Task: inverse folding
């Protein structure tokens, strides 16, 4: 029960983080969204065996976490929570692709192992980048930015509602789980039949709640279009933020920086 | 408009399952008048309230708000005139921050960006929660949520405030603050409540409902003295009148 309460509280924590007041928080949402998209495109554009050239890209999330004063441990915990999906995507690669690509000492690294590792690194980079974006901008800001980029309003509004209704649904689930736990006494495990009934009730209660919320929205003039707050003016510091990171991503993408450092260092100690 | 903000004429509503919600209900309310709707659970108070802003349409009779018939074509104007504050503020507050929620209705009304912030802050200051503007509604206390829900409606400058059980789930201090706040409003108020002391303090007039019918309508102090009527409607004389302490409506 305490876990559910903690999880419910946790759902809104990203919004709390987005209410911060660092220089990154104050940047225009469009600038942050654009840079994050460039970052993700750059990261996924490498070939499937690439590992070392992805490393410089860690600079971006590290910068966001440090300059945005974000809790690194909390974000890492979030990333790890969804890691099983990425692991599942690549876990069979070592079995399917056994071509040896290179050796690390006595260890022969196959194409499957390299691609699996590459998937994990890309997953870490992109998910951390996206989480940092949400923690620095908030879902509301992201939706407004998406809309100003030409994404149909209906999608932006759906995203906003999804974020809002998750907390409503979690709240209902929390109350039901509490009611069940208080009358379960010694039984800690939830039998499948009870779980099924709780899930059904949750659906009905969420539906009923959604109807009441919809009526309340109608009473305040809702006509199917959600008026998102207008974006602030895209100013010089936003342009500098976008330009600087775009240049850096281009360098990371086009120049083999790890190799460059390797040559530099081995040359230094020769 | 005939000098009345709300005119209900033989209003009836039968739910789709055949349950009778209200029957032949007629009443009028003038601008600035505060009317309490009291009655036991299932008496038809909420059903009646939902007719005042077009959440429900009557199966018989008619209702007019600010001179407009409550029909589909007039809904935007009717909903602007009658601001509804729901029983559970969680049903009403859905935007990510208190500021955004108060701004929601204003943006729907087409308020210009330049005026938006001023109007939102004015509404928040009116209910005393300007300091909560950046907070997430679902993290607020029940009293703060109630204040935010009121601010979201007051910002729209309605002519009448329609409130469903505004004191439910409030602690005594939050309830007292709400009473003080509502007394400062010059709007007409239609308030469904079980809190008869609250009705006595805030509303000059009380309508008693029982099984979908209006069984009494008059000054609150007089209606609440009719012990037999209250008993028949499963209500009780307000504690403040019983003890002779607190508000004495006859003075």
Result:
């Amino acid at each position: 029960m305490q876990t559910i309460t903690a999880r419910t509280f946790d759902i809104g924590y990203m919004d709390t983080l987005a209410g911060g007041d660092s220089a990154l928080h104050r940047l225009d949402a469009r600038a942050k969204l654009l840079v994050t998209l460039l970052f993700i495109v750059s990261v996924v554009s490498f070939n499937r065996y690439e590992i070392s050239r992805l490393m410089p890209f860690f600079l971006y999330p590290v910068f966001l976490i440090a300059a945005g004063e974000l809790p690194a441990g909390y974000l890492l915990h979030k990333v790890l929570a969804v890691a099983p999906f990425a692991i599942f995507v690549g876990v069979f690669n070592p079995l399917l692709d056994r071509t040896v690509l290179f050796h690390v000492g006595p260890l022969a690294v196959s194409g499957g192992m390299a691609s699996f590792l590459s998937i994990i690194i890309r997953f870490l980079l992109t998910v951390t980048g996206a989480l940092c974006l949400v923690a620095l901008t908030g879902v509301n800001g992201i939706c407004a930015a998406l809309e100003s980029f030409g994404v149909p309003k209906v999608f932006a509004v759906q995203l906003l509602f999804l974020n809002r209704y998750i907390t409503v649904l979690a709240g209902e689930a929390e109350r039901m789980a509490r009611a069940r736990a208080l009358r379960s006494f010694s039984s800690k495990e939830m039998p499948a039949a009870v779980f099924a009934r709780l899930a059904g009730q949750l659906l009905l209660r969420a539906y009923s709640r959604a109807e009441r919320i919809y009526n309340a929205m109608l009473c305040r003039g809702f006509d199917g279009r959600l008026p998102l707050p207008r974006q602030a003016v895209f100013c010089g510091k936003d342009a500098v933020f976008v330009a600087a990171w775009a240049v850096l991503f281009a360098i990371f993408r086009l120049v083999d920086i790890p190799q460059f450092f390797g040559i530099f260092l081995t040359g230094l100690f020769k | 408009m005939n000098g009345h903000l709300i005119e209900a004429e033989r209003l009836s509503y039968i739910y789709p399952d055949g349950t009778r919600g209200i029957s032949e209900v007629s009443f009028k309310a003038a601008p600035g008048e505060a009317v309490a709707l009291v009655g036991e659970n299932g008496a038809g108070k909420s059903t009646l309230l939902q007719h005042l802003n077009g959440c429900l349409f009557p199966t018989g009779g008619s209702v007019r708000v600010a001179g407009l018939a409550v029909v589909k074509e007039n809904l935007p104007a009717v909903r602007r005139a009658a601001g509804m504050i729901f029983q559970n503020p969680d049903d009403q507050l859905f935007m990510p921050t208190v500021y955004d929620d108060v701004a929601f209705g204003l943006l729907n009304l087409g308020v210009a960006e330049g005026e938006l912030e001023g109007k939102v802050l004015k509404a928040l200051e009116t209910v005393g929660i300007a300091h909560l503007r950046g907070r997430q509604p679902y993290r607020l206390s029940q009293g703060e949520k109630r204040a935010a829900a009121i601010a979201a409606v007051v910002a729209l400058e309605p002519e009448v405030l329609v409130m469903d059980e505004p004191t439910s789930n409030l602690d005594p201090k939050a309830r007292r603050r709400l009473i003080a706040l509502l007394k400062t409003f010059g709007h007409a108020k239609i308030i469904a409540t079980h809190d008869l002391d609250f009705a006595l303090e805030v509303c000059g007039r009380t309508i008693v409902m029982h099984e979908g019918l209006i069984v009494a309508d008059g000054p609150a102090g007089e209606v609440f003295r009719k012990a037999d009527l209250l008993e028949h409607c499963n209500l009780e004389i307000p504690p403040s009148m019983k003890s002779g302490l607190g508000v004495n409506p006859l003075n």
